[in-house]
Amino acid sequence: MPLRSSLSKAKNWPAVLEYAESIRDGRKIACEELKQAVDRFFRDLDSTEYEMNPKWPEFCIGIIEKTICHQQGEKLDGTPLSGTPFLLEPYHKFIIYNLLGFRLAGTEILRSHEALIYVPRKNIKTHLCGSIVLGAVPFVPQVRGKDVYRIRRPDAIPGIV
């Protein structure tokens, strides 16, 4: 992978790699689809067809963590989250790296043009979708102008975030 040296300098790369390795190694419990996503992640990292460029994932993560705050909710100990920075969990960073990091080798063409992200109830899916829209869509040239949809429940009508 030609951009290996730039990955070692990327601030969030260690968290992404640790998250993926913990699922691959069985240290973190995961559903079959997540295991498949992790397998694809490592397969694409080793492939000569794709290269991982941390520029846009790092930019998007930085925009989200520095500009977006929680509007509601609380920590497990009951401390309110409202007004505190929206610090992404490793699985959020894994999603962003998968969406914005992989390019066709030697080009700026993103590997992924669509994604279905399933996040169970009460796991900040609206905040995550909105953050990706605010952190990536206006700034990342390859994503600019794309629609992002979210579905709240099986009987809900999809809507543009």
Description:
By secondary structure, the chain is mainly alpha-helical. The chain has one domain. Helix content is 42%, strand content 6%. It has six helices and four strands; from the N terminus they run H-H-H-E-H-H-E-H-E-E. Strands 1-2 form a two-stranded antiparallel sheet. Strands 3-4 form a two-stranded antiparallel sheet. Helix 2 crosses helix 3, helix 4 crosses helix 5 and helix 4 packs across helix 6. The mean pLDDT is 82.
**Distance separating the two termini:** 35 Å
Looking at how many chains there are and whether they match, the oligomeric state comes to single chain
Succession of helices and strands: HHHEHHEHEE
Number of structural units classed as domains = 1
Major beta sheet, specifics? 2 strands, antiparallel
Strand order of the largest sheet: 1-2
Structural class: mainly alpha
Backbone shape: globular
- How confident is the prediction overall: mean pLDDT? 82
Q: Share of helix among residues?
A: 40-55%
Radius of gyration: 16 Å
Report the total helices: 6
Give the tally of β-strands: 4
Could you list the spans in which at least 5 consecutive residues all have pLDDT below 50? none
% residues in beta strands: 5-15%
Descriptive tags:
161 residues, mainly alpha, two-stranded antiparallel ribbon, two-stranded antiparallel sheet, 6 helices, 4 strands, 6% strand
